[in-house]
Amino acid sequence: MTDQILMDSFSRRVDYLRMSVTDRCDFRCVYCMAEDMEFLPRQQILSLEELYQLAQSFVALGTRKIRLTGGEPLVRQGVVELCRRIAALPGLRELCMTTNGSQLGKLAAPLFDAGLKRLNISLDSLDPTRFRELTRTGDLAKVIAGIDAANAAGFEHTKLNCVVMKGRNDHEINDLVAFAIDRGLDMSFIEEMPLGVISEHSRAEAFYSSAQVRERIAERYTLIDSAESTQGPARYWRLAEAPHIRLGFISPHSHNFCGTCNRVRLTVEGRLLLCLGNEHSVDLKAVLRRYPGEPKRLESAIVESMKLKPYRHNFTLDDEVQVVRFMNMTGG
Ligand code: SAM
Ligand code: SF4
């Protein structure tokens, strides 16, 4: 256990790390990747041991929550063992993962046994053809089997994530809510963010605000504003008809959530990103490889990096790409 904490220059405590364990993925979601992606060569990415050492240093500095993400974290060989080692770090309260669900059919139970506490699973459509269009390669049946495997393995508070795009999946919002109610899962609706250059649709034209999503939901359900917060960017609502689930709205455009930001992101290249919507970063892989076996060096680089954390992002609603890296590089 540690008394140390990480604090940025705006007196925000940073105790949440999102770690990308791969930039690769078995899907090519239209809002996240281009159809032809070039992935990083192996020597450029962190080894499992390096990922573990970084997690260890962050936890030594007071990090209480780590989320593994990517790319698709479950396509990284050895990820279950990595979970087991990170989950056992004393002082860490919660190890979670964001996944597209495609591998959960076989991995949900081993992940649960390894100490992973919670899952966020992406689900943008319940129509197999549209699901394939939006993910370019995904198989809806496999993902639904993965969601059911997660429930059966004992995961609680699993959350579904849906990126809403006008004209592509906005008409499915209430069917997705019904699915979440039926499975007893929370669900978050996300506004698309301008990360990376995509070609399939205009982000400005596809923009569908969280307020519009709520209007759609109000056509079928009674929404109750809830003051609940998880310190994250989502704002939560409940449904009178199904009070057992929560609906979250992540609105990087229409509601700026930077004031209470408590998180940083680590890319699989070992670059620490201080803000989702800005390029400020520090190369922790360089420190790790220059000073092997000297965790104090790494820890002081992490402490120093907090000075670079900007106050806020400034996404705007035009088709200009404001951050050139793709979401799979960012660690969503
Ligand atoms: N592959 C995993 C998955 O899809 O859940 C984890 C990585 S993915 C980058 C993490 C989350 O980011 C997903 O819920 C995805 O829908 C979301 N995402 C990706 N690109 C986005 C974008 N441009 N705007 C908003 N959310 C995005
Ligand atoms: Fe892969 Fe997740 Fe990006 Fe989709 S959102 S392409 S599943 S990393």
From TrEMBL:
Residues where [4Fe-4S] cluster 2 binds: C258, C261, C275
Pathway connected to this protein: Cofactor biosynthesis; molybdopterin biosynthesis
EC number, as in UniProt: 4.1.99.22
NCBIfam families (UniProt xref): moaA
Name of the encoding gene: moaA
Family to which the UniProt record says this protein belongs: Belongs to the radical SAM superfamily. MoaA family.
Taxonomic classification: Bacteria, Pseudomonadati, Pseudomonadota, Gammaproteobacteria, Pseudomonadales
Protein name: GTP 3',8-cyclase
Matches recorded under PANTHER family: MOLYBDENUM COFACTOR BIOSYNTHESIS PROTEIN 1, MOLYBDOPTERIN COFACTOR SYNTHESIS PROTEIN A
Keywords (A to Z) from UniProt: 4Fe-4S, GTP-binding, Iron, Iron-sulfur, Lyase, Metal-binding, Molybdenum cofactor biosynthesis, Nucleotide-binding, S-adenosyl-L-methionine
The organism of origin for this protein: Pseudomonas orientalis
Cofactor section: [4Fe-4S] cluster
